[in-house]
Structure formats: structure tokens, C-alpha cells
Specification:
Number of domains: 2
Order of helices and strands: EHEHEEHEHEEHEEEEEEE
Mean pLDDT: 82
Shape: elongated
Helix content: 10-25%
Number of strands: 14
Radius of gyration: 22 Å
Structural class: alpha+beta
CATH topology of the largest domain: Rossmann fold
Number of helices: 5
């Protein structure tokens, strides 16, 4: 609680976490192979960039903590592993109306908390502050051996869920930008993007830069671990720049150039030929 000079100190501190528009929670154990798909997914979303109004939480195996993080949130997305015997990588989307049949809380131990118990506990503990809009994605595992990496089928299922979360839950929170924009190429070999373009199309810190068909392509990557070039923040306003000298060596079109976003290829394209 922040007090102004005109407000008395009542000694009461508000410990309630702030609400948000979208809360994404990844549940599971990172040490047990495919069971860690939820936390791994959240880490990828962190790298891709978290828009204002959204929060990403590594719920791990702490179901009660997950329940309390839901307070005041408008929409909740929970991602966890499943072991039903179906084909590994299968994605299940649990309809919200099924949450009315969640299991009772009596006799539960903290170590036995799953996503369904977390929702039931949140409804009991939070009352009217518990979100009504909750979506759960479950990804069928191939193995949960200690120390193993995610299997390829589960990685594919995780990518499917990430695409859905971006499209249905996060994209509306990202700043809009015009179909045609401008970028600036500098004499010292950088490309500069203004804050609106960077926030709407390049939320992470990594990009790939290539030349194809006489166009310069700038392609967003999911994060620095994907390789590519580093997109640095230039100023407090949020403008970004990347060093592209080696990609365009000898043909950098110095100055401001028109560009357009190619939705089909997921890239910003800048024509290199002089405008007529």
C-alpha cells in the first residue's frame, strides 16, 4: 500500500496480489521429463515477451500458490501434463463447464495437489475474487523419468498450445501497429525500430536477419537461446536496434525505408530496391 502525504498511516498493509487480464500458469515438475512441460512452456513465453496486462507463472508443483495467484484475474490459463495412455503429445482442452465437477478438497495433502484441486481450492478460498474464465490445456506425456528432457511429441504439443495461447489470450494485449511502417538504417550498420513496432512484432530480444528476393527480412525469434541477433533497447521510450552490418554488407540502404509485415511468413520485410 502506498501512502501519500495527506493519508494517515492506519497500520493496515494490503497484501493482496494485483490482478491482471491474463494469467498463464505452467504446472509440473521440471526434473521429471515430460511432466515439466508446463513450466517449460512458461519459460518460452517469458522469452517471447510478456505483454502488459499478462502474467506468466511457473506453478511447479505448488498448487496452493497457484490458487492464490488467481485472485482478481480476468482470465486464467493452466498448462499441465497428462497421463491417460493416449498418444504422446496429444493436447486436451478442458471446457470451463467441467470445472463444476471438480474433486472435493477433504483429505488432500499439499503434495497431491493437481490443477483441478488448485481450481477447487481457489473457488473455496477466494470466493467472488476467483476468476470465472479458466481454461486448462493438458499435454499427454511420453515419459516422466528423472533428468530427462522433453520428448519430441510433447515439444510439438507444447508448441501447439503456445500458438493457441498467443492467438486467443495474448495477441489482443500486444500493441497494434499499422500494416505499413518505417524503419531506419544507419551508417554504422544498425536497423532501428520504433517502440510501437518493436512491442507489437518483436517482443523478445532476438531476431533473425536475412536477404531474400531483394527484400531484407527481420524475423522474430522466441528468445536469445534461439540464436540470431540481439535486439537491444536504445532508449527509455522502448525503441530497439540490431546490428545487421554483416547481413547487408555493401548494400545498406542508409536512411528511413518503408517496410511491411508479412503475416504468412511472420517477418518484417524491407524492400532494398530504391523506391520509384
Amino acid at each position: 500500500m502506498i501512502l501519500t502525504a495527506n493519508e494517515p498511516d492506519t497500520g493496515v498493509i494490503d497484501l493482496e496480489p494485483p490482478g491482471c487480464e491474463v494469467l498463464v500458469v505452467g504446472c509440473g515438475n521440471l526434473l521429471r521429463g515430460d511432466d515439466g512441460v508446463g513450466p517449460v512452456l512458461v519459460r518460452h513465453l517469458w522469452e517471447f515477451g510478456v505483454p502488459d496486462g499478462a502474467q506468466m507463472v511457473d506453478g511447479g508443483t505448488a498448487g496452493m500458490d497457484t490458487a492464490f495467484r488467481m485472485r482478481g484475474v480476468q482470465r486464467v490459463v493452466i498448462v499441465d501434463a497428462a497421463a491417460t495412455g493416449a498418444k504422446p503429445g496429444t493436447v486436451y482442452r478442458v471446457p470451463g463447464e467441467e470445472f463444476a465437477e471438480l474433486p472435493p478438497l477433504q483429505g488432500l495433502h499439499t503434495h497431491s495437489f493437481r490443477w483441478d484441486h488448485a481450481i477447487a481450492f481457489a473457488r473455496w478460498a477466494l470466493g467472488d475474487a476467483c476468476p470465472a474464465d479458466i481454461t486448462v490445456f493438458l499435454i499427454e506425456v511420453a515419459g516422466v523419468e528423472y533428468g530427462a528432457d522433453l520428448s519430441e511429441p510433447v515439444r510439438a504439443g507444447m508448441q501447439t498450445v503456445m500458438d493457441i495461447i498467443e492467438r486467443e489470450f495474448l495477441s489482443a494485449l500486444r500493441p497494434a501497429t499499422a500494416a505499413e511502417v518505417t524503419v531506419e538504417f544507419t551508417e554504422d550498420g544498425y536497423i532501428r525500430l520504433d517502440a510501437a513496432l518493436a512491442a507489437s512484432r518483436f517482443a523478445s530480444d532476438a531476431v533473425a536477419a536475412v536477404v531474400r528476393d531483394d527484400d531484407f527480412w527481420l524475423i522474430p525469434l522466441r528468445g536469445p537461446r534461439s540464436g540470431g541477433l540481439l535486439l537491444k533497447q536504445r532508449n527509455p521510450a522502448g525503441d530497439r536496434s540490431a546490428l545487421i552490418h554483416e547481413v547487408l554488407h555493401g548494400r545498406i540502404p542508409i536512411g528511413t525505408r518503408r517496410a511491411f509485415w508479412d503475416d504468412e511468413r511472420g517477418a518484417l520485410r524491407v524492400p532494398l530496391e530504391p523506391a520509384t
